[in-house]
Design brief:
Layout lengths: L4 H7 L11 H10 L5 H10 L5 E5 L5 E4 L5 H11 L7 E2 L1 E3 L2 E3 L3 E2 H8 L10 E5 L5 H8 L4 E5 L3 H13 L6 E4 L12 E7 L8 H10 L1 E12 L8 E2 L14 E2 L1 H10 L3 E10 L16 H4 E2 L2 E5 L7 E8 L1
Parallel strand pairs: 2-4, 3-6, 7-8, 7-10, 8-9, 10-11
Antiparallel strand pairs: 1-2, 4-5, 11-17, 12-13, 14-17, 15-16
Helix pairs in contact: 3-7
């Protein structure tokens, strides 16, 4: 099973030390109630070989370059183990000559977001709903001091730890399997990212307030979410599903989202990017057995979902505490 004690030791003397008042007990309880497949997924990490990369690239990719090329047999064994952790949704990863071609080209999103951010050098960062951790590694590549991702999905934790092992066991990023609603207000992070989470929340303003509680004064929120066209009063509340997803509750316009953020006490709120999700950014691959974006759109009109709603459009907003 995954050992969180190195993380406890790492934060014991820093500005996250107060988290130790609640975190060890929470994770102990989490392990007792973990998904039935968790033990099997965690074993995959043990089965991966101890490899040393001669070069780690976290600036233009998430890549580990081996000191000497692996044999075809060694590569196939690693691929076999990594595919026990499918579906791989956020990526891509290039690890010792193995390309994990994930459903999402998360590098597309990162390249849209990065130019607008306050410099991440030396920052302590929280990534909420981090998935397998792709963006966390890119934050490390930008010089972050520590990146903490939270996501309650056990499969994503095991994917993250598998990638970490193949990245020379880098300890600048950590994934904690909790939701933000389980975190005490730490007011300790210089940057807080919430990307692809807000529309899954039944109470979006509560989510925005929880994000604000984790920021230091002056810290930066990076919020990426689905949006629709419209004015300050425009919000889509799907009556059933949105793009086949059951757990989509509120999709606001950019103007409505700015209003929400200001109501929650954020300052300097600005939208820096709006982009329709393309079939090049989200698609089926050999690392995904499930459906993907093409299956969620009206086959006769890709401007609409199967349910007749506007097709996925995502905005990036920045704000400060």
């Amino acid at each position: 099973m995954i050992d969180f004690r190195p993380f406890y030791q790492q934060i014991a003397t820093g500005k996250l030390a107060n988290w130790l008042e609640t975190l060890p007990l929470q994770l102990s309880q989490w392990q007792k109630n973990a998904h039935g497949e968790y033990a099997k997924w965690a074993k995959v990490i043990e089965f991966l070989p101890e490899l040393t990369a001669s070069q780690i690239n976290l600036q233009s990719a998430v890549a580990a370059i081996p000191s000497q090329p692996l044999s075809a047999g060694e590569q196939q064994r690693i691929i076999y183990h990594l595919k026990q952790l499918m579906p791989w949704r956020k990526g891509p990863y290039q690890l010792h000559g193995i390309d994990i071609d994930c459903e999402w080209r998360s590098d597309f999103k990162w390249n849209r977001v990065l130019p607008h951010l306050a410099p991440l050098q030396d920052r302590t960062i929280l990534d909420v709903g981090c998935g397998s951790g792709y963006h966390m590694w890119r934050m490390v590549g930008e010089g972050a001091n520590m990146v903490v991702g939270i996501d309650p999905t056990e499969l994503f934790l095991c994917q993250f730890e598998a990638v970490r092992k193949l990245l020379n066991n880098d300890r600048r990023a950590h994934l904690i399997p909790l939701g933000i609603e389980q975190m005490q207000p730490l007011a300790a992070f210089d940057s807080v990212f919430s990307m692809g989470v807000l529309y899954h929340r039944k109470s979006p303003l509560d989510h925005l307030s929880q994000l604000r509680e984790q920021l230091v004064n002056g810290g930066e929120l990076v919020l990426e979410t689905l949006v629709i066209d419209g004015d300050v009063n425009s919000v889509l509340v799907p009556p059933d599903r949105y793009a086949k997803m059951k757990n989509v509750y509120f999709i606001p316009s950019v103007a409505a989202l700015i209003n929400w953020l200001e109501k929650c006490g954020f300052k300097n709120v600005r939208c820096v990017d709006v982009e329709v999700t393309s079939l090049a950014e989200q698609r089926k691959t050999d690392w995904l057995q499930n459906e993907s974006l093409i299956d969620f759109l009206d086959p006769n009109d890709h401007r609409k979902t199967l349910e007749g709603h506007p097709a996925p459009k995502r905005a990036v907003l920045l704000a400060n505490k």
